[in-house]
């Protein structure tokens, strides 16, 4: 296990180096000039040159990149071209909202997905199974922006049960929970559908295995058979889906945050791309990538805890 963690940390460092290089070069070759965005269309050539010199944009691109890496090694991710705020402060200000939304969405997706998948497996080929499978198909197919708009129209505008948008209240308050419900459902629907389908197929495979038939022949009750003997083994592939989807949710909140006017990492990234704010874009992408790889590492560790047969030696 220690060797696994060491290898993954090394892979994490190499992966982040690769991602930082790709993002840096992508922003460099993209059309547009940060100096023009900062100074405005009426700025003179001398003003633009002074801004480029101040930001270090007049240096060769590889020198800019290695200067950026040197700053990261010292904990300096740069400053926003637009606000002058440090990238670290800008991210830390917005990240809690994204994290709350991702966790709430994952809780919704996990509960709905696992319960629906297990029930579908137990009631295989029944109307419950068919209904659950059909809803899962629609859940995967429905775009987030459309579902979010429909939820706002129905539950916020017409019924007035939930606020239209924002996420500025404590999640431990009633108003904070109400602000989270609609965006969590919007973001978690597709993940819930994937988890439900994986839970169903995994549970079907397990309950048809020899040891389950043996336990059933010995008179083990149905409830114990499902929730004690089958569920643990059936959850191994499901945990993979949950882990990967959680990492994806952190990076995939952009549309949901736009629809519900949530000041999170997604909106920060969109605004930074539009304004050519290179340091903010690079910082947010590196954060999402680091979280995604870390979540995958945690999933591998949970594998070994759930199933002792799995070894990483």
UniProtKB/TrEMBL annotation:
Cross-referenced InterPro entries: BPD_transp_1_N, MetI-like, MetI-like_sf, Opp2B
SUPFAM superfamilies: MetI-like
UniProt keyword annotations, A-Z: Cell membrane, Ion transport, Membrane, Nickel, Nickel transport, Transmembrane, Transmembrane helix, Transport
Pfam families linked: BPD_transp_1, BPD_transp_1_N
Membrane topology: Multi-pass membrane protein
Every ABC transmembrane type-1 domain range: 95-303
Subcellular location: Cell membrane
Keyword Protease: no
Transmembrane domains' residue ranges: 12-30, 101-122, 134-157, 177-196, 285-306
Record GO terms (molecular function): nickel cation transmembrane transporter activity
Keyword Lipid metabolism: no
GO cellular component terms, semicolon-separated: plasma membrane
Family as reported in the entry's similarity comment: Belongs to the binding-protein-dependent transport system permease family. OppBC subfamily.
Subunit relationships: The complex is composed of two ATP-binding proteins (NikD and NikE), two transmembrane proteins (NikB and NikC) and a solute-binding protein (NikA).
Protein name per its UniProtKB record: Nickel import system permease protein NikB
Annotated source species: Lentibacillus populi
Lineage: Bacteria, Bacillati, Bacillota, Bacilli, Bacillales
Gene symbol of the encoding locus: oppB
């Amino acid at each position: 296990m220690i060797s696994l963690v060491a290898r993954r940390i090394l892979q994490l460092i190499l992966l982040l180096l690769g991602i930082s290089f790709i993002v840096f070069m992508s922003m460099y070759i993209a059309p547009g000039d940060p100096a023009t965005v900062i100074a405005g269309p009426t700025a003179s050539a001398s003003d633009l040159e002074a801004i480029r010199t101040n930001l270090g944009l007049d240096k060769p691109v590889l020198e800019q990149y290695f200067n950026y890496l040197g700053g990261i090694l010292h904990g300096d991710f740069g400053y926003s071209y637009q606000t002058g705020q440090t990238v670290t402060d800008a991210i830390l200000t917005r990240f809690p909202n994204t994290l709350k939304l991702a966790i709430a969405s994952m809780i919704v997706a996990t509960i709905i997905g696992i319960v629906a998948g297990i029930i579908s497996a137990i009631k295989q080929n029944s109307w419950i199974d068919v209904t659950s499978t059909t809803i899962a198909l629609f859940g995967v197919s429905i775009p987030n922006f459309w579902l979010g708009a429909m939820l706002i129209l129905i539950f916020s505008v017409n019924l007035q049960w939930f606020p239209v948008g924002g996420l500025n209240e404590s999640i431990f308050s009633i108003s904070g929970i109400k602000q989270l419900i609609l965006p969590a459902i919007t973001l978690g629907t597709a993940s819930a559908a994937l988890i439900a389908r994986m839970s169903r197929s995994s549970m079907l495979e397990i309950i048809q295995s020899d040891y389950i038939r043996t336990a059933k022949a010995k008179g083990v009750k149905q409830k114990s058979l499902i929730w004690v003997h089958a569920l643990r083994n059936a959850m191994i592939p499901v945990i993979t889906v949950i882990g990967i989807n959680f990492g994806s949710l952190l990076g995939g909140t952009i549309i949901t945050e736009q629809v519900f006017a949530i000041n999170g990492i997604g909106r920060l990234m969109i605004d930074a791309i539009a304004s050519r704010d290179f340091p903010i874009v690079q910082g947010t992408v590196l954060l999402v990538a680091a979280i995604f790889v870390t979540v995958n590492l945690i999933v591998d560790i949970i594998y070994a805890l759930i199933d002792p047969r799995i070894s990483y030696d």
